[in-house]
Design a protein that fits this description.
Blueprint (H helix, E strand, L loop, with lengths): L3 E7 L2 E2 L5 E4 L5 E5 L9 E8 L3 E11 L27 H16 L7 E3 L9 E6 L4 E4 L6 E3 L8 H15 L8 E7 L6 E4 L5 E5 L2 E4 L3 E5 L4 E5 L8 H15 L3 E7 L5 H6 L3 E8 L2 H11 L6 E5 L2 H4 L10 E4 L8 H7 L6 E6 L2 H11 L3 E9 L9 E8 H7 L1
Parallel strand pairs: 4-6, 7-22, 17-18, 17-20, 18-19, 20-21
Antiparallel strand pairs: 1-5, 2-3, 3-4, 5-6, 8-9, 8-11, 9-10, 11-12, 12-13, 13-14, 15-16, 21-23, 22-23
Helix pairs in contact: 1-8
Length: 406
């Protein structure tokens, strides 16, 4: 391990991921993490490990604070690893936009016109993961597995936050498994019914008299459709805001046509959002249980759909679709597998929508697709309040189709 040195200086700008960038006196780059939000122009003290050409470290003290900084709304903000932007206050949206702009400038410099949709003040998480160490319940501390006990969580829906002490009481009272493990608390839309899941996929429903073993399904009801999925299955972290944001972007693009290829389709969110704008849908999803839920969700909407349980890379054929079709992809955090990107080069559909919850992976995939596809519009959505994470949604057009239009 290289020795730790104390460094004092000014944060020059914010980089992707919320890191503060600075320069040492000899010109070397410094990349600084922080337990709380950082503002460009702030003077800080940091513990730094120097490497050959740059330094990495963490801020331990503020010498000069930005006047926009406000007290954190969480008593464990400085230690808990769940959030990164406490104390940013109303400037949080601007800081996250700055981070996204840094990434896009470096990775997709040709994209200068893009939209940013900040999270509304009332956006809350409908799923949280807690850890029980045998004595207490809480979140992991930033950068470690040390437990930070919590009795509530201000970024969770009120019903979830109120369920935390009831979960701890039940574990301590031997009414729920006592082994050290991760627990998930989740609620549907609108927030209300709360379920708890342990690592063995046991599900308990919280009722007025306590927790009861249950096979509870999660119910997400929105403006014009309802989706159901199994407890513990993947779904948006803040469903009401996520659906509103996706709806705004997709409606603005006025997407319509013959067939929607909903790849990595989950339980049918994007098929439901696009509704009858397409004559038929082909949904492909690796998770067999999610595919069954997708069928149950789309059938009552009278949306002609073929739901296929398969790995997208194995299912995806060459020359997919026709000019009037849309290919929509919402891959896992790691982004598109190389074989998927390669097969998309020959697709016959002329329009594609790519969704990415990791900005760096999204930019990489846009670059991979660039020989055949052009990114014509981009929206960056803050679907993960108080973290540096954003969701990117890109509209792409086939270069062949664009040349024909010209």
């Amino acid at each position: 391990m290289r020795p730790v040195e104390l460094w004092r200086g000014e944060i020059a700008r914010l980089a992707w991921g919320g890191k503060g960038l600075a320069r040492s006196e000899d010109g070397r780059l410094l990349l600084l993490g922080s337990p709380l939000a950082l503002f460009p122009g702030e003077e800080v003290e940091a513990e730094v490990h120097w490497k050959a050409r740059h330094g990495e470290g963490k801020v331990i003290r503020w010498i000069k604070k930005d006047p926009r900084r406000v007290p954190a709304g969480c008593p464990v903000a400085a230690t808990c690893g769940g959030c990164d932007l406490w104390e940013a206050g109303e400037a949080a949206a601007e800081l996250k936009k700055t981070m996204a702009a840094d990434l896009l400038h470096r990775q997709l410099p040709e994209i200068t016109n893009w939209r940013y949709l900040p999270a509304p003040a009332d956006a809350r998480r409908h799923r949280i993961q807690l850890h029980w160490d045998g004595k207490a319940l809480g979140y992991h501390a930033r950068g470690s597995h040390q437990l930070v006990p919590v009795a509530g969580c201000p970024i969770a829906a009120d019903d979830l936050s109120a369920a935390i002490p009831r979960l701890q009481e039940a574990i301590q009272g031997k009414l729920l498994p006592q082994r050290p493990q991760r627990w998930e608390l989740a609620t549907g839309t609108p927030a209300g019914r709360v379920v708890a899941l342990d690592e063995k996929k046991g599900v308990w429903l919280l009722e007025p008299d306590g927790w009861h073993r249950d096979d509870a399904e999660m119910i997400e009801t929105f403006q014009d459709f309802t989706l159901r999925h199994r407890a513990g299955g993947f779904f948006q972290v803040s469903p009401p805001w996520a659906v509103a944001a996706f709806r705004a972007v997709l409606e603005d693009w006025d997407l319509k046509g013959a067939t929607l290829y909903d790849l990595y389709g989950g339980v049918g969110l994007f098929s439901a959002l696009l509704g009858n704008r397409f004559q038929r849908r082909v949904l492909v999803e690796y998770d067999i249980a999610a595919v069954e839920w997708a069928k149950k969700n789309l059938d009552p909407m009278a949306l002609a759909s073929e739901c296929i349980a398969s790995d997208v890379g194995k299912w995806l054929p060459e020359n997919l679709g026709a000019p009037e079709d849309l290919i929509l992809l919402d891959p896992p955090r790691a982004g598109l597998e190389p074989e998927v990107a390669a097969k998309l080069m020959s697709a016959m559909a002329e329009t594609m929508v790519l969704v990415g919850c990791d900005g760096a992976a999204f930019c990489r995939d846009i670059q991979r697709l660039s020989p055949a596809w052009k990114l014509v519009d981009l929206a960056v959505l803050d679907l993960f309040p108080l973290t540096p994470h954003v969701e990117c949604v890109g509209l792409l057009k086939r270069l062949r189709a664009m040349s024909h239009e010209l």
